[in-house]
Specification:
The chain has a 4-stranded mixed sheet with strand order 4-5-1-13. It has 2 domains: about 1-120 and about 240-285, Ribosomal Protein L22, Chain A (Alpha-Beta Complex), CATH 3.90.470; about 125-240, Ribosomal Protein L22, Chain A, CATH 3.90.470. Helix 6 (about 150-155) packs antiparallel against helix 7. By secondary structure, it is an alpha+beta fold. It contains 9 helices and 13 strands. Strand 2 (about 80) and strand 3 (about 85-90) form a beta hairpin. The longest helix has 22 residues, at about 50-70. It is globular and about 55 Å long. The protein binds coenzyme A (COA) and magnesium ion (MG). Coenzyme A binds near residues 84, 104, 105, 185 and 186.
């Protein structure tokens, strides 16, 4: 029963962009599979790392939508809400009326979560010292207004600075996953959210859903948060359901798998691929 629900309703995918070194021809092929306005947006990124993450996010969305809705690949039309959240513009086939999906990218991974019956938001964060921060305590100071007093107690309960940073990112992901499920984006006062941590993060590959949420001091019962560690990245998935799937498995896809069943939306654009290859991988200071 649990397995059939997982297959029918939940998708959890991940892609490692650090290990992916696209050739000109890979990049041209990928660019043919996304809408022209997205191709243009991605072309403007200065660094390969950002372009790769955004491209993979789009390819993940299109693959998942084609698979779930059976809409022909090239006919899938994604729009963005005023706040930037991608949504499906096509008429939704029966059974897919409530399909909800979201992607996130940070560090080495792009991740996607999709659900058939519940709203969903996802966030991933690499557990590393933030680029440009002088020290972890300075970084925490800058972020002091984003977390409640109880959340700071949890963050500071870590024995070492690295543990504290792990706790910080855990809460960060939880907050972002909720904000992203709502689709409200920047401007939401995340200090209104108080996450109640009930257990440690699971070991790599396992998922827990014990964390609870108060919004403006009110306990919420219709939200569930799945938390997973993938290598040294934490992932939170927020769902409007009090009965989620247990231990959803993040399937790590390859580039070929992402393009399986795809169909080009446009003619090959060799220049686009050549411009990508010339970009630097990432800013010099970034790991
Ligand atoms: N709601 C949900 N998803 C959105 C979105 C929105 N309003 N706007 C964009 N997205 C999707 C897109 O697919 C986007 O990918 P793209 O940029 O390649 O198109 C993806 O989410 C980006 O997610 P992520 O990689 O996790 O980026 P982010 O964490 O930098 O941005 C947003 C998250 C988009 C919600 C952004 O509005 C934001 O930064 N909010 C900050 C809220 C905050 O104060 N957080 C502090 C937590 S302590
Ligand atoms: Mg994020």
């Amino acid at each position: 029963m649990r397995i059939s629900r997982l297959v029918m309703t939940s998708t959890r995918w991940a892609f490692n962009t650090r290990q992916w070194e696209p050739t000109v021809s890979d990049w041209v092929k990928a660019s043919q599979c996304i809408q022209s306005e997205e191709k243009e947006r991605i072309g403007k990124f200065v660094f390969k790392k950002d372009a790769k993450s955004s491209m993979i996010g789009r390819l993940m969305l299109r693959k998942m939508l084609h698979r779930r809705t059976k809409i022909p690949y090239a006919d899938i039309k994604l729009g963005r809400t005023e706040k930037g959240k991608p949504y499906l513009m096509n008429n939704t086939p029966e059974g897919c009326e409530k399909l909800s999906f979201n992607v996130s990218h940070h560090g080495d991974y792009v991740v996607l979560a999709a659900e058939t019956f519940t709203d969903v938001g996802i966030d991933v964060m690499k557990l590393e010292t933030p680029v440009g921060a002088n020290s972890i305590s300075d970084f925490f100071h800058t972020m002091r207004r984003q977390f409640t007093q109880d959340e700071w107690v949890y963050i500071k309960s870590g024995k070492t600075e690295q543990d504290q940073l792990g706790n910080f990112y855990r809460l960060w992901c939880l907050k972002e996953s909720y904000v992203k499920a709502l689709g409200v984006g920047i401007g939401f006062e995340v200090k209104r959210l108080n996450f109640l941590i009930k257990s440690d993060l699971p070991s790599v590959g396992q998922t827990i859903d014990t964390t609870q949420l108060e919004v403006d001091g009110q306990f919420t019962i219709h939200w569930t948060f799945e938390e997973t560690l993938l290598d040294n990245h934490c992932i939170a998935v927020a769902e409007t359901s009090s009965n989620p799937v247990k231990n959803p498995f993040f399937e790590v896809l390859t580039f070929n798998q992402l393009l399986e069943d795809s169909n080009p939306l446009s003619d090959p654009d060799q220049k686009y691929g050549e411009e990508f290859i010339k970009k630097p991988e990432r800013p010099k200071l970034q790991r």
